[in-house]
Automatic annotation (TrEMBL):
One of its GO terms (biological process) is phosphorelay signal transduction system. Keywords: Activator, ATP-binding, DNA-binding, Nucleotide-binding, Phosphoprotein, Transcription, Transcription regulation, Two-component regulatory system. The modification 4-aspartylphosphate is found at D89. SMART domains: AAA, REC. This is Response regulator. InterPro entries: AAA+_ATPase, AAA_lid_NorR, CheY-like_superfamily, Homeodomain-like_sf, HTH_Fis, P-loop_NTPase, Sig_transdc_resp-reg_receiver, Sigma_54_int. Residues 40-154 form the Response regulatory domain. The keyword Nucleotide-binding applies. SUPFAM superfamilies: CheY-like, Homeodomain-like, P-loop containing nucleoside triphosphate hydrolases. Residues 183-412 form the Sigma-54 factor interaction domain. Pfam families: AAA_lid_14, HTH_8, Response_reg, Sigma54_activat. One of its GO terms (molecular function) is sequence-specific DNA binding.
Amino acid sequence: MTFSTSRAGAAASPAVGREPAVKLGKTTAGPEFSALAQASILIVDDEPGMRNFLVRTLAPRCKLVDEAADTDQASRKLDSNRYDVVILDNIMPGKNGVDWLAEQRAVGFFADAILITAYADLDTAIQALRAGAADFVLKPFRSNQILNAVARCLDRVRLQRENYVLRYALRASSDRTFLRDNLIGQSAATLRVRETIARVAGLPTSVLLTGESGTGKEVAARSIHSLSDRADKPFVPVNCAAIPPEMIEAELFGHIKGAFTGADSGREGLFLYAHGGTLFLDEIGELPPPMQSKLLRVLEDRRVRPVGSEREVPVDLRFIFATNAELQKEVEKGRFRADLFYRLNVMQIRLPLLKDRGDDVQELATIFMSKLSIQLGMPPVPIDASVRAALASYEWPGNVRELRNLIERTLILGAFPDDFAGPRNDGQSAPADSLAELERRHILGVLKEVNGNREEAARRLGISRKTIDRKCALWDV
């Protein structure tokens, strides 16, 4: 918590709001207050003059500025609106600001609060800190002081959210592929997907991306986001299968302090972190049944209730979903809610298999070789005619992810693996096997490299452990 204590300016009293010497126009310039442009602010103060001064200071710079004359009115506004910052007077009739703030934190209020008061002492500062105030501004103050305090709050929250989302994406993502924001290739199948993305990107419609693992569903989701009017807002990817079922509600919806064992502090969830932007829910078919009903309500009401909270918070989101499961079949088996499926399946885009994308595999292999060689610090390995023939004929059960992993393994080894029908150690080329035999040799070769560890082999190939088990059973190995 920071303390703004300068008294070298216009007094923050009812008279300040009428004082012409404030010169509001001068403070509108400069990049230091650019963060305010999309901010929603709530001012809670019983003095009309102070509210007027703060509204005149903030309204020209902010997206929304609301005001409340007491804590009861402020509570009602929090029930119906979402604010980025609350500016709160401490000394008010009925209930002081610190007590009200502590109550709101307990029922699910996450926004930053700036406490303003003319009666500053150590006890008040400690109480404000414990109640969750982010800043403490002493009266009298200049307009620039309150603008700086709001800008600090917005910047801090933005950095916290970006940091959490980036750390979450690094934890949750098992596909470290490059070119995540670009759908590479000129095949007819790829062009059809790109055309559909271009048509739907500018609309608020939810999108369901389907296709086998490794076909590039997150790539397509990022493309939709980057082409939309939310491109400058957060893109938050969530792998529903990677979050333990007992934690997924708190991760998505957030929680208040004490909501469950270990909840030592409150936290906004990923829904709120994506506010204004795009939330990408991958592996949506793995969402536990209780969460399916909660997600359905969010889609219908655009409001979320953090775990343990008594208040629902409005959110502005664009939803993109992805799955490699056949959701219609999951509905028929009773594992996925039919009403949720119909809400998701407004606009479906199916990502093609790599083997159905023609020469895209050659372009992708060349790009991966160039990018990964730089990342790994390894010299690129030439992709000669025999390797290109193998790339074209292989079935790619792990799709683009498997291709990327093959190129990385090639760079580490210094040559394409012998079992990939590339150049052999004796300088001879492998015979032109059937696709099934080529696949068998490649998978078994990777298994040999990892000493039979099927989990590691599946990771390297970019396919599921179940696929490895099924293939091995088929080959009786």
